[in-house]
Write a structure and sequence with these properties.
This protein has 299 residues and is α/β, with parallel strands linked by helices. It is built from 12 helices and 5 strands. It has a 5-stranded parallel beta sheet, sandwiched between helices.
């Protein structure tokens, strides 16, 4: 394809003298153009919401959200997937990611990996990808062959597919059920899509995973009640969440967390006066929704 026609490869007229600018001038320019990114992302919200609804439906059906990407795009996908476990208690059985070139590409560029469609397909096969899953392919240019290979395979499986990019009319559009395109314009450093394109991508992935988890019942109010307390800071946060949700004093929250083993069961138990076993059963019945479990037990 003719990459020169992609907006992500164009020169930004505001930064033509980048190497002659003072440090403060460059910082001000970067800050100003970065402020335009949320405006570009805002235009994608209907497509983001559409993708979220499909991701949530997949979760309810035992499916997964799978990210694939190359370079910066791939690293952002891996990062978002990795953060879902400590934030939402959602491990690889719910959210997983693959980057072109494998784990080595997370720290070092693996040249040529993104140019091979068959690697995208192979990674999905390795994940036992099926029609129950959702594939989100991430490519700033919307043209990475690795992503196209994965999208083709996912489409053949009958799965829902979404593509996240920063160009109009991306090459992978024909393989996507939904295209989420945040056109942020040329980078101040020509072609360096780790900048504005990367920021836009991060904002979109934040929404895809976070809103899906909210819709799936892993959030109560605005509290991350499925968080895994793996260190002192997170254990303290867990106790404070129980306090915030129920109004009990710290000592009572700590005791209930010790009895129940997790934040959600603790909240349901306190709010309904039920024991840990009954609270857990109610949560299981409502697929983890604290609000619905409390409603059921109060009937």
């Amino acid at each position: 394809m003719d990459y020169s026609k992609l907006v992500t490869e164009n020169q930004n007229p505001e930064s033509m003298r980048l190497d002659e600018m003072s440090t403060l001038e460059v910082a001000r320019l970067m800050n100003r153009v970065d402020a335009e990114v949320p405006l570009a992302v805002e235009k994608t919200l209907p497509q983001v919401a559409e993708a979220v609804d499909h991701i949530t439906a997949a979760f309810r059906n035992g499916g997964r959200l799978i990210y694939v990407g190359a370079g910066t795009s791939g690293r952002l996908g891996v990062l978002d997937a990795a953060e879902c476990l400590p934030t939402f208690g959602a491990g690889k059985e719910m959210v997983d990611a693959r980057i072109a070139g494998g784990d080595a590409a997370l720290c070092t560029a693996v040249e040529g990996a993104e140019d091979r469609e068959e690697l995208g397909e192979a990674d999905l096969i390795d994940l036992s990808f099926s029609e129950k899953d959702v594939l989100v392919a991430i490519s700033a240019t919307g043209s990475a062959p690795y992503c196209i290979g994965a999208l083709k395979y996912a489409k053949e499986c009958g799965a829902y597919t979404a593509g996240v990019c920063c160009v109009d009319k991306p090459a992978f559009a024909e393989y996507c059920s939904t295209v989420i395109s945040a056109v942020v314009g040329p980078e101040i450093l020509t072609g360096s899509t780790r900048l504005r394109a990367g920021t836009a991508t991060k904002l979109i992935l934040n929404m895809l995973s976070t809103i899906s988890m909210v819709r799936f019942g892993k959030v109560y109010g605005n509290l991350m009640v499925d968080m895994v307390p793996t260190n002192k800071k997170l254990t303290d946060r867990a106790v404070r969440m129980i306090q915030t949700a129920t109004g009990v004093p710290r000592e009572g929250a700590e005791q209930k967390l010790s009895e129940c083993g997790d934040v959600k069961t603790s909240i349901v138990s306190i709010e309904t006066g039920s024991g840990p076993k009954e609270a857990k059963e109610a949560l299981d019945h409502e697929q983890g929704s604290v609000r619905n479990a409390i409603r059921d037990l109060k009937r």
